Amino acid sequence: MLLEHSPVKRLLPALLGALISLAASAGAQADATLDKIQQRHVLTVGVVLSGGPFGSIDPGTQKPRGLNVDLAQELGRQLGAEVQLVPVLPANRVQFLQQGKVDLLIANMEWTAERGEILGFVPTPFYRVGGSAALLKDSKITRWEDLKGQPVCTSQGSSYIKPLTELGVEIKAFKSSSESLLALRGNNCVAAVHDATLINPLIADNAEWQGYRALSPELNPAPSVIWTRPGERDTQARLDPIVKELHRSGWLIEAQTRNRITPASPALVDLQKQFQANGA
Predict the structure, then answer these.
(1) 28-51 burial by CB neighbour count: b if 16+ within 10 A, else e?
(2) In this structure, are residues 109 and 93 in contact, taking their beta carbons and an 8 Å threshold?
(3) Residue range 179-189, pLDDT digits in tens
(4) What is the DSSP secondary structure assignment for residue 157, as one 8-state letter?
(5) Which CATH number fits domain 34-126+225-278: 3.40.50.10770, 3.40.50.970, 3.30.2310.40, 3.40.190.10?
(6) What's the whole-model pTM score?
(7) Pairwise CA distance, residues 180 & 257, whole Å
(8) CATH says 131-221 is which class?
(9) Residues 6+ away with beta carbon under 8 Å from 168
């Protein structure tokens, strides 16, 4: 009888209503981004433009360029949407996506299990890349293990922080790769660790880096994916066949060549063969 007049029981209908409302909102969230893109015909994509063949500013035109930029523009074309590029940094890119400032992230952020738990992503990767270290040519470091106990520069939020920490290095994390590389040149660290697709061409093609070399093999190679907010399955399902077709047609291999990405990714050739065989 006490339960009949309990405040808890009187609140149960309201609580259940609130839970149902929350569940409905969560379900609607899955469609919200794709619906918004289709309704306004605008796709906002967070990209890192701090340098390298995946994202930088063309010194001649002052416009964004790079493979990630090309991929964002191609997604927009296939979705019938104008693309708005939003510059992000490794230190804030996840927050930009979580806060709804961008619809997608194509921002030098490889898949890891930890990231996969807090964000959503398009299942088919568009690339695969690992880390390389820029260090002085006369450095005695020849293996990743030689970095133990040494100060190493990288970017905040980098996927290489965890494996570097496991190697026992002293991490110095900066907001951007350009700040990290500048710190290396200022002798604030013995090496700067970033994507091999940034480090290798920088050392090979830039006269200012002739006194440096790259450390190989690649550290912690992982798939590059397009990131969404959690639960946005409709957005992921709409984009996944587009990425598969970009592999099958060779578009991604052409984009890699066009943006002078070295070393070329063998994963792109393997993925093209896979989707050509599957008819995807």
Answers:
(1) eebebbbeebeeeeebbbbbbbbb
(2) yes
(3) 999 999 999 99
(4) T
(5) 3.40.190.10
(6) 0.82
(7) 27
(8) alpha beta
(9) 148, 149
